[in-house]
UniProtKB/TrEMBL annotation:
Top EC group: hydrolase
UniProt-recorded name of the protein: Signal recognition particle receptor FtsY
Domain of life according to the entry: Bacteria
GO annotations of cellular component type: cytoplasm; plasma membrane
An example Gene Ontology molecular-function term: GTPase activity
Keywords, sorted A to Z: Cell membrane, Cytoplasm, GTP-binding, Hydrolase, Membrane, Nucleotide-binding, Receptor
Naturally occurring in which organism (per UniProt): Fervidicola ferrireducens
UniProt topology in membrane: Peripheral membrane protein
Record carries keyword Flavoprotein: no
Gene that this sequence comes from: ftsY
Length: 295
């Protein structure tokens, strides 16, 4: 928990300190206090729509539970924030294919390396599929992560068909009895239509070539992009069936509140958070620990 709290220290400064400021100077908890509170939530990247929902729940609670003290108000807000997150956990039932999608630069490759390391450490056999064949360096970068994590990487030449790479990774996965195949994908959003078609094709190949496998699609979002991350999530969610989110670069950003906005506006669970560039800087997301860390 200390690690999480350390990562979220700027978000906490943004939120907790301001909230304490408001509460301290309010003689009682009234509508003015709540309105000021809403502004603080919005400024901490929780977003207008999610802050609005939180506040109406909180208003109700203040009335019903006769909340008077600042401590009680803070606890009530924490409870409401925890409730925003869908309780779903990522369940890995071998064999599983994990399609990792997201815009370039959000930390997709790094996240795949961290996931590979995590699953390998848990005793699972992992194969990586370098299906971002568009960027010259992508497969190379994935290979480096594969080496670090000690897992095999299936790759083709630059410019080849991503679906063919995944096809080969699936055959390798079957032959080597892998528990998990993690597939990198391209992330060039400026050719949105092509990209979404490509992702759908990867999904179809997974279903067709490995009907026994469970298919999970993880959307990687960069917390430092704040509300932009929400816009990206909406685009991907329209095109592909997203199982959940990995929110990266939470270390050192003041925009950690965006996790609440994502869960609230998209109703998607946050499965993991990235808290650094290293192999074990990936943590399972725990809504309660998160709420305690930011408030
Ligand atoms: P991709 O283009 O989506 O595959 O992104 P990369 O995996 O190449 O990551 C882009 C940059 O973000 C790299 O410099 C990574 O080290 C960095 N990065 C990824 N995840 C995290 C994280 O959780 N925290 C921090 N601080 N940096 C990260």
């Amino acid at each position: 928990f200390e690690r999480l709290k350390q990562s979220l220290v700027k978000t906490r400064n943004q939120l907790a300190e301001k909230i304490e400021g408001i509460i301290k100077f309010s003689a009682k908890i009234d509508e003015d206090t709540l309105e000021e509170l809403e502004e603080v939530l919005i400024s901490a990247d929780i977003g207008v729509s999610a802050s609005d929902k939180l506040l109406s729940q909180l208003r109700e609670k203040v009335r019903a539970e006769k909340i008077r003290s600042p401590e009680e108000l803070k606890e009530a807000l924490k409870e409401e924030i925890i409730k925003v997150f869908p309780a779903e956990k990522l369940e890995i039932v071998p064999p599983t294919i994990i399609l990792v999608v997201g815009v370039n630069g959000v930390g997709k490759t790094t996240t795949i390396g961290k996931l590979a390391y995590r699953f390998k450490t848990q005793g699972k056999k992992v194969i990586l599929s370098a299906a971002d064949t568009f960027r010259a360096a992508a497969a190379e970068q994935l290979s480096i992560w594969g080496q670090r994590a000690g897992v095999d990487v299936v790759k083709h030449q630059e410019g080849s068909d991503p679906a063919a790479v995944l096809f080969d990774a699936i055959q390798a996965g079957k032959a080597r009895r892998a528990d998990i195949i993690i597939c990198d994908t391209a992330g060039r959003l400026h050719t949105k239509k092509n990209l979404m078609e490509e992702l759908k094709k990867l999904y179809r190949v997974s279903e067709k070539e490995y009907p026994e496998a469970k298919i999970v699609s993880l959307l990687v979002l960069d917390a430092t992009t704040g509300q932009n991350a929400i816009a990206q999530a909406k685009i991907f969610k329209e095109a592909v069936n997203i199982s959940g989110i990995v929110l990266t670069k939470l270390d050192g950003t003041a925009k950690g509140g965006v996790a609440v906005a994502i869960a609230s506006e998209l109703n998607l669970p946050v499965f993991f958070i990235g808290v650094g560039e290293g192999m074990d800087d990936l943590e399972e997301f725990d809504p309660k620990a998160f709420a305690d860390a930011i408030l």
